Amino acid sequence: MPMYDFRCTQCGHPFTVRASFKEKDAGLQPECPVCHAVETQQVLTAGIFIGQAAGGGSSLPLPMSGPSCGCGSGGCGCG
Ligand SMILES: [Zn+2]
Fold it and tell me: Residues lining ligand 1 (ion), CB within 5 A?
């Protein structure tokens, strides 16, 4: 059964909840073990930074069409 990290939005206490996919899909609303508030929020520990890093916009510039060696005339045999 998978574990989910939650944090209480009332007292800030972090806790782990064990729930099935079915329970999670139905809208898991665990209770804080400290103050028993149901205002909790899931904490995504793994994967959240990976998703942000993948959104970068640096792409390699495409080479200009023509000889790859840069001779320009084709006389060097580069084709
Ligand atoms: Zn709490």
Answer: 8, 10-11, 13, 32, 34-35, 37
pLDDT tens for 2-32 read 888 999 999 999 999 999 989 988 888 899 9
Topology of the domain covering 3-50: Rubrerythrin, domain 2 (2.20.28)
Best CA proximity match to 43, nearest among 25, 56, 64, 28:
28
**pTM (whole model) above 0.70:** no
Q: Where are the beta strands (DSSP E) in 11-69?
A: 14-18, 40-42
Q: How far is the CA of 10 from the centre of ligand 1 (A)?
A: 5
Rounded to the nearest whole angstrom, what is the distance from the C-alpha of residue 41 to the centroid of ligand 1? Answer: 11
